[in-house]
Amino acid sequence: MRKLAFLIDEIDNSKELIRFAALLGKDINARVHVLYFQTTLYSYGGDGLTGTEIPPDPELYQKISDDIKEKVDGFIKEIEAEHTGISPIEFRSEIGDASLTLKEKVENKTYDILMLQGHSEQDFWLQDSVNMNVVRNVPCPVYIIPPDARYQPMRKIIYATDYNEEDIATLKNLIELTKPFDPEIVALHISNDDEFEKQLMSEGFAALLSEKTGYNKVSVKIISDDGGKDAVESLVNEAEKAKANLIVVLKENRNFFERLFKSSFTTQLVKEAQLPILVFDKQSGN
Asked: What are phi and psi of 2, to 5 degrees?
């Protein structure tokens, strides 16, 4: 059984996303852990010039942890009562750096998949935010779930690609992960290179993907990129036209990944598409 960890940060707005995680876990045969990380904050004593750090109050942290646990456990109890067949959901509150802790847990096979509570605001996508550190550093598939998302089985997937050798391994992992849904997968390339398009089609890349992955529901599509200005709109339009349930990007696809995670680009994507984003890297397994 897979193990899925869902990292929440806005407790009051987390119930429906916990439901999302639970239903996804049911469909992909994954046990779900809901996690909340408290950062270790220090207060300062003294005159402001010669003051010293005062370690956090353990009783205060325990009270915060207990209050959060009570609320989240209440959400979990309601969700488990409303849905049959889902595995028991566990809640854990920890103190420390979420990125470092989760990286270690994934490397130790404690978790196979991560989910993050997305936001429409730009602070989610800042270079040094907790969420972005998790996306960049943790070597497993990472789902980013928009704040208003409602769970849908993954019947149609848009996979953003530069058409390189890493795509074959990633597509194999994606196909294995989404096998219960038997989805259509569109390998989408955003390009302004007409010659690239002609070469791609002449070489039969779609047939090659089907052959290499052993999956016959993979198609190839190229859309134009007007200097990068309309990339978000083009991607959202393609996802909406296809009635896609998921957008997938590979971290090693540096060109697209870096553009995707510029704050204005992805903020608009999450806000407009209201679709989960799944980030793979080449170390991501099944």
From this structure: -70, 160
User: Would the pTM of this model clear 0.90, i.e. be above it?
Assistant: no
- Confirm if 221 and 187 have CB atoms less than 8 A apart: yes
Per-residue tokens: 52: 């010293």
Q: Strand 218-224: give its sheet, edge to edge.
A: 90-95, 30-38, 2-7, 113-117, 142-145, 277-280, 246-250, 156-160, 184-191, 218-224
Beta-strand relationship, 113-117 and 277-280: unpaired
Cβ neighbours of residue 110 under 8 Å, at least 6 residues apart? 3, 5
Angstrom distances, CA of residue 273 to CA of 16, 133, 225: 18, 23, 18
Which residue ranges form the domains of the chain, and what is each CATH number?
1-148 (3.40.50.620), 152-277 (3.40.50.620)
What mean pLDDT, rounded, does the chain reach?
Answer: 79
Dist CA 270 CA 75 (whole Å): 25
**What pLDDT is attached to residue 187?**
87
pLDDT-based confidence at 286, cuts 50/70/90?
Answer: very low
